[in-house]
Amino acid sequence: MEYTILILLLPAIMFIFLGLAGHKLKPKIAGIFGTISLGIVTLLSLTTAWEYFTSPRVNGVFEKIIPFNIEWLRLGEFLHIDIGILLDPISVIMLVVISLVSFMVHLYSMGYMHGEKGFQRYYAFLSLFTFSMLGLVVATNIFQTYIFWELVGVSSYLLIGFYYTKPSAIAASKKAFIVTRFADLGFLIGILVLSFYGQTFGFIDLMGGSSDLVLQGAAQKSFLGIGVLSWALGLMFIGAAGKSAMFPLHIWLPDAMEGPTPVSALIHAATMVVAGVYLVARMFPLYIVYAPGVLEIIACVGAFTALFAAIIACVQTDIKRVLAFSTISQIGFMMVALGVSTSMDAHGGLGYMASMFHLFTHAMFKALLFLGAGSIIHAVHSNEMKDMGGLRKHMPITHITFLIACLAIAGIPPFSGFFSKDEILAAAFKFSPMMGWVMTVIAGITAFYMFRLYYNIFWAKEAKHEHKPHESGYSMTVPLMVLALITCVAGFIPFGHFITANGLVYDLHLETSVALLSVGVAIISILIATIFYRKETQPIPEMLASKLKFIHKSAYKRFYIDEIYQFITHKVIFACISTPIAWFDRHIVDGFMNLMASATQKLSYLIRNFQSGRVQQYAYVFLLGIVVIVGLILLIL
Amino acid sequence: MGVELYLVISTIMLCAGIYGFLMRKNTLAMLISVELILNAADINFAVFNKFLFPNQLEGHFFTLFAIGIVAAETAIAIAIIINVYRNVQSLDVDKIDKMKH
Amino acid sequence: MDISLQNVVFIIVAIFISVFSVLTVTTKKIMRSVTYLLFVLLGTAAIYFLLGYTFLGAVQIMVYAGGVVVLLVFSIFLTKADENLNIGTKIKKVLPILLTVLIGGGLIFFIIFTHNFLPMASTDAIEELSMKTIGFALVGGGKNQYILPFEAIGVLLLACIVGGLLIARKR
Q1: In a domain, B2, yes or no
Q2: CB proximity A608 to B under 8 Å
Q3: What is the CATH number of the domain that holds B37?
Q4: Model-level pTM?
Q5: Calpha distance C34→B36 (Å, rounded)
Q6: Which terminal residue of chain A, N or C, has fewer Cβ atoms less than 10 Å from its own Cβ?
């Protein structure tokens, strides 16, 4: 399967080509180039998946294949950083997800970004992002993951700040980069600790490979009362939490919506933000064995984030913000699913499988939602709900696909979201009933806010438009239809045959009670939303908002988390630490240097007259010198 | 009549030459002063040779060669001065500073 | 010290040289300055004659008085040489130079008169240096003979001719 290297190389080449030569091409040609290369990559990924999952199993599991590997940097006797490709069930699934969504976004952007300044640059950055994301998922070792992890961060930064003349976009891109960079510090330290004790970076070695004994030895060591491996894995989760926007590092994701909408669909819904989930899944065997405590923390953080984001999503009015908080909430679901797994076998590891399943289905329907939102924004030129309403008559395709996605995320059968969410709830109930109920409530809230969004856009009161909104072109509606189709059928994929914690085949079966419960909750929530928001006037929500003014306002303000960050950074860090240091630097360090400089300058002004360039002055000084020297000699003798 | 009297003449000539070199601003006049200085040195060579080492002829020949070299030096110096004058229309030594800045 | 004809001539030449040396550097007209320089050079030639170095005196007159002074006169004609002859008459500028020169001259006089010269030859009876001796010494290669410097001077003069042409030629 050596051709998998092409999956990585094509986007990289396309980035270099479009980045260097893009401005010489017509925008449309550049877009076609990028889209075609991504199309080839998608085909290759699908072929890889087909070939990988049809190959015979060894001892009942799919083999891990490394079709390509080079040693890039050797650090010592054991440690060496490689660059390579590792194919195993989760990386193959991720390949499919990323290339498919990325292809759809490329295609969609041809219509959405039409006529934008910097169209070629946009496609170059998209290629860079695709390359880094693909490199991240096929990494053979943690360090390669980290390198591509940072590349993903950079390309995300570039794409959020795509409209670089807009101050809010620049602020958002900086915020995203700095917050995730902070989290990545934890990730890096985690990598160093883990590789120091594990004596390898490679995933295969770390998981049941040669370094098992080494790790078992390291598990005995502890630091501040907690095992070093727990420290390492916990720090790595901080990195994952930063990328996946877990509380309290979620603040960058809503602001990242300043970027072009297709970018939000690709990066901030379907692929990059699930990198954290992917990382935890990748390291899952280590978490299970060496740090079960960290897994519980992951579950709690995930659950809290899911609830928190879901509540905020209920009151936001910017449709992209609603979707952003919904993304945070859904990633929380995936984290919970990973966190509630208790063992590698089929029952304990149900959550692992469920989280990967949900990752897959969520990527599809959330990309669909974002692309649909993009189509709507394209039509009405606004992000705000109040500028929409009644759009179902004007945009039938967008309406239907959006509805499918809403039903999927709400968990209504037979759409894909139902199946994956059901598995997560089943795993949560297995872990503890408390967790199960909490997650069920959050699922209900999810259904509520999604249908609030849906009704506010497509029903409710029609806003006045300067010109009549119309359905988008084919380049935009085709990706919507493709994704909607996938959303309809993806739930019936026998996912347990491909990915399970221990690799053995596991037949999914719906837990009837859980399924009935979740569908019931979802339907009730949808009904409430229908009553609240379908009509042209919305008396009940307004009444509730004024009754619960405090809660409504604080949720609308996202519980003041951004303000807290502002306070801490500006009032505490800037004022108490940075300002004195800056003063010291400006006055003491610089002052010393300036003193040296001015002293040298004064001295030079003082002695510059020695170098007048006048022959006669030189001759006079020469003569004077001779007279003085001869006089002195005569005096001494 | 001793060596000293000859040396007094040459000393007067030397001092006059140095004074002129420092006082004159005109390059040609400075060149004239340089001639005086060199001449003073020539006299000294001849005098020392004649009275202190009469059996050898070093001083004599040194003076001879010095006169030849001075002639050459003067010719070159005047060529340069005339050339400079053509370019800056002045013989003032302080104004010849085009290559300084 | 009896007054011989030689002594009388010497004193006249000495006064002549001293006066014209000082006049050379103090006169306000550059043409006069050159003329006084010519007198000084002729006086120097006279001293060479007094010392018995007649060949040297002849060379002095030919090269200096005949060549150098003529060159100077011509260059003065070619330029506005009379403008800005001196650096100025301000006492602040003149006085340090004058003082330094006088002190330097005083030092030299002090050295001359305190140093005990040991004359090998009589200062009174001067013999003329024969032309034959000079000729042999100038083109001989042995001890106390000067063929090498002679050739070196020849090459130097050639270089000067080429250099002078290069500098002076019009482009």
Answers
A1: no
A2: no
A3: 1.10.287.3510
A4: 0.67
A5: 11
A6: C
Residue from B32, B70, B84 to probe the interface with C (highest C Cβ count within 10 Å): B32
Residue C61 touches partner B, C-beta closer than 8 Å = no
Interface ipTM above 0.85: yes
Q: Say if B89 falls within a structural domain.
A: yes
C-alpha closest to that of A418 among A346, A314, A526, A501: A526
Looking at the structure, tell me whether residues C89 and C155 fall in a common domain.
Answer: no
- Rounded Cα gap, residues A180 and C28, in angstroms: 87
Domain that holds residue C138: 129-171
CB neighbourhood size of A493 (10 A): 16
Q: Which of C51, C84, C118 is the closest to B26 by Cβ?
A: C84
Q: What is the pLDDT of residue A229?
A: 81
Please give the tally of structural domains in chain B.
1
C167 with B80: Cβ contact below 8 A: yes
Residue C73 sits in the same domain as residue C109: yes
Report the CATH number that the domain containing residue C62 is assigned in CATH: 1.20.120.1200
CA distances from A604 to A123, A201, A607, A615 (A): 57, 58, 5, 21
pLDDT of residue A212: 64
**Which of B18, B93, B97 is nearest residue A623 as measured by Cβ atoms?**
B18
Same domain? C55 vs C103: yes
Record: contact B21-A614, CB cut-off 8 A: no
Tens digits of residue pLDDT in C100-130: 999 999 999 998 888 887 777 665 666 778 8
Nearest residue of A to residue B26 by CA position?
A616
Residue A66 has pLDDT above 60, yes or no: yes
As for how many domains chain C has, the answer is 2
Q: Please tell me whether residues C49 and C78 are part of one structural domain.
A: yes
Domain assignment present for residue B19? The answer is: no
Q: Which of B18, B21, B94 comes nearest A614 by C-beta?
A: B94
* Per-residue pLDDT tens over the stretch A140-155: 888 888 999 999 989 8
Q: Return the partners of chain A (3 or more C-beta pairs < 8 Å).
A: B, C
**Enclosing domain of residue B73:** 25-94
Question: Residue A257: phi, psi to the nearest 5?
Answer: -70, -5
* Nearest residue in chain B measured CA to CA from C171: B83
C71 and C112 assigned to the same domain: yes
The whole-angstrom distance between C117's CA and the closest CA on chain A is 18
Q: C61 and C118: one domain?
A: yes
Tell me the chain C residues in contact with residue B68 when contact means C-beta distances shorter than 8 Å: 63, 153, 157
Q: Is a pLDDT exceeding 90 seen at residue A389? A: no
**C118 and C142 both lie in a single domain:** no
Which DSSP category does A58 fall into? B
C-alpha dihedral, A414 to A419 to A421 to A424, nearest 10°: 160
- Picking from A383, A364, A330, the residue whose alpha carbon sits closest to that of residue A479 is A364
